[in-house]
Amino acid sequence: MRRLYALFLLASSILSPLKIYCQSDEDMLKSIFNETLTNGRSYEMLDYLSNEIGGRLSGSPEAAAAVEWSRQEMMSLGFDTVFLQEVMVPHWVRGEKEVVKVINSDRLGTFDLTACALGNSVGTGDLGVVAKIIEVDGIESLRKLGRKNVEGKIVFFNRKMDPTHISTFAAYGGAVDQRVFGASEAADLGALAVVVRSMASNNDDIPHTGTLIYKEGVKKIPALAISTNSANLLSKSLKAEPDLELYIESHCQMLPDVLSYNVIGEIRGSSKQGEYIIVGGHLDSWDLGDGAHDDGAGCVQSIEALRVLQSIGYKPKHSIRAVMFMNEENGLRGGLKYAELAKKNQEKHLAAIESDRGGFTPKGFTLVGSEAAKAQLLNWRPLFETYGIYDFGKPGGGADIGPLEEQGTVLIGFLPDSQRYFNLHHTTADTFDTIDKRELELGAASMAALVYLIDKYGIDGKN
Amino acid sequence: MRRLYALFLLASSILSPLKIYCQSDEDMLKSIFNETLTNGRSYEMLDYLSNEIGGRLSGSPEAAAAVEWSRQEMMSLGFDTVFLQEVMVPHWVRGEKEVVKVINSDRLGTFDLTACALGNSVGTGDLGVVAKIIEVDGIESLRKLGRKNVEGKIVFFNRKMDPTHISTFAAYGGAVDQRVFGASEAADLGALAVVVRSMASNNDDIPHTGTLIYKEGVKKIPALAISTNSANLLSKSLKAEPDLELYIESHCQMLPDVLSYNVIGEIRGSSKQGEYIIVGGHLDSWDLGDGAHDDGAGCVQSIEALRVLQSIGYKPKHSIRAVMFMNEENGLRGGLKYAELAKKNQEKHLAAIESDRGGFTPKGFTLVGSEAAKAQLLNWRPLFETYGIYDFGKPGGGADIGPLEEQGTVLIGFLPDSQRYFNLHHTTADTFDTIDKRELELGAASMAALVYLIDKYGIDGKN
């Protein structure tokens, strides 16, 4: 009896890899989703990354901890290789809590606005900045006002995210130029500082940070975000009292670059080892929350995608990698370095999937690639409809994988539901308690499923 | 100049209703979604219902407040008629906080389990119940054990919701028989009481209440839910120590029926006044949370659907109603009364839409109706895809509208994303702070859009 059982075990061990390859795509996707929903590790991983390590801006000790954590995590999962890529990253620090207050209102006296410095901004120093305020609804309006109306003032950018866009990312895209370029545009006209309405879908008291880019040759002036409630209050107050003055104080500064790393876990391909399919997220986050959605979710989903395929016994033809990119938020150095090394090492990257839109219920995948690639992605859609995933092929990739485009890599963006994202994006509210375990897992499973399909059928990167 | 302007105004007022009728369906849906996302009232209404009134179980003072609130709210919106339908409802009260504890563990001593009485359950009285525990994974296993193993014990139903179902409602449907029928099945075999694993997708310390139904002629025994963490702990403990005893104490009771009401707001049809399209939710909720998702959301979305159509100047051909059903949770008396009166008053109900699956991002609509009705619903799907809404025509209606089926009414269930719902369903965690404004509004807009399409094109109720 024992001998029979041993024979049975032997037969199983020989046949089970075969079984995987005899399965239909429908059955494979079912295995992937079942494994993720039953034995998923992504939620537990994200708990550690969010609650034990927390916010992890590039160059911080927490970012270093996140590098070591993800390296150990992928080692412990038994991937074939785990390795680091060196990358020098900017090191911006926020310093003491920012102050923004209206100081001369006859109606309300002195009152505070909730605020935070924008990433990469210079600080005001201890003495702060005091000036009159000029409100504008964007860069174009600012330019029309010209130097005579702007010089010596604090510019208040107050264009809202348009609520009628169904994708909140479209609404974000329509407003974020104020945050990214507003400071230099205002400085060009002699402004002393800028405050920007937070890039938020909702009205509340939470300011949203995010990166700004200073234009070369233009004076760097302090830039802060104020919460949407504060922006509404300030705008209303300015209508009643146009001569209001603002006091702003911030202590942020840019320190010298720091050595950091992309962290990469790899399962080697069986027949096409030198060709890669990657899934990734960015390991750095802003300092204010714990970066659970942006982009802890994308990191753990990427690791989980590899774990699930490994766990159900799937042996990929191509080499597949989970890539934790460093410094997406305020520099993109990790994404640039990854593409640079891929080129240098002559690694052919077939497709790159990025998850960086939060850990919410999956809706589909976006694409930057050839018409053939798009047709193929759309062709796979019926397989995903069973899982409530319907939205395929709209244009879009991801910031970190973007630099791979010129190497002919098909770029794919994971597209989760976007409605809640810009309530918490880049804020103290981006915390683990807003993550739903099943939503996170369904995203990881859909990413694993897409890796499987690309590995099996390939995808045409040529235009 | 002023005269010209007056002429312009006059022309506008004549032409604007025409304009609405010259719009394409695409434009009408855009108007509906834009109005809801820009000037929506549903979030504000739900804030009041949840935070000012709170939990509102049938027969409670809070349920009476909810009736009066929704009547006033719909009056203030200027609907053509707002009226009440009398309905006698059960009046179950929870009484003092329940106690469930293991009292004789050698390993852990005495320890508490987090618990709540099931709705409609009898209480244990002050002395509680003490007995050994028999764990089963469902009613079938219980029956197999037979009287000799069950008599004098407390039955512990511990079958989980299956995490591999993508719709959490399917997982709920696969487990909820334990909660609804477990008590009478156990009593039939001489059990003293039952504790049931909470109907929850996640593991936490929050017990989920919900209705039970006692079988006629069988002794009514106390029934409580314990949280999933408590169920896991109890199950593990029983493996180590099978002779554990449980002490349970609950003070719930069923009081005499109380007069309550369905609340109905109506916009009268222009050409088919005697034919109705209704949208509804249930006004009652369990007592533990504030009933924001279950089903405050459905109520305010229904009111909002009418408000939006009215606000953009749409004049329906059919009469349309927002119906706040009373007593869905533990009796369905309101839904039964509504259908009874519709029949008696010879009101032809073309279609009934119910929102009772939470206020999350809309995914589509389910249907109970003819093949022609299904084909028509699927035909409208492309109009909704722009709004991320893809899932049409799966079978399903709603509890409150169910009794209308025999009158030939097409039943339609609003289908939002289901992943988070069974973390909070029937618990203290079903609170307004878990509502996302945009998600709620997108649901209301999709319901308004469907009412518009049904009003314009009709829908075939015959099989």
From TrEMBL, chains A, B:
It is found in: Endoplasmic reticulum; Golgi apparatus; Lysosome; Secreted. It comes from Fulvivirga kasyanovii. Residues 262-448 form the Peptidase M28 domain. This is Carboxypeptidase Q. It holds the Pfam family Peptidase_M28. InterPro entries: CPQ (IPR039866), Peptidase_M28 (IPR007484). PANTHER family: CARBOXYPEPTIDASE Q (PTHR12053:SF3), PROTEASE FAMILY M28 PLASMA GLUTAMATE CARBOXYPEPTIDASE-RELATED (PTHR12053). Keywords: Carboxypeptidase, Endoplasmic reticulum, Glycoprotein, Golgi apparatus, Hydrolase, Lysosome, Metal-binding, Metalloprotease, Protease, Secreted, Signal, Zinc, Zymogen. Its main location: endoplasmic reticulum. Homodimer. The monomeric form is inactive while the homodimer is active.
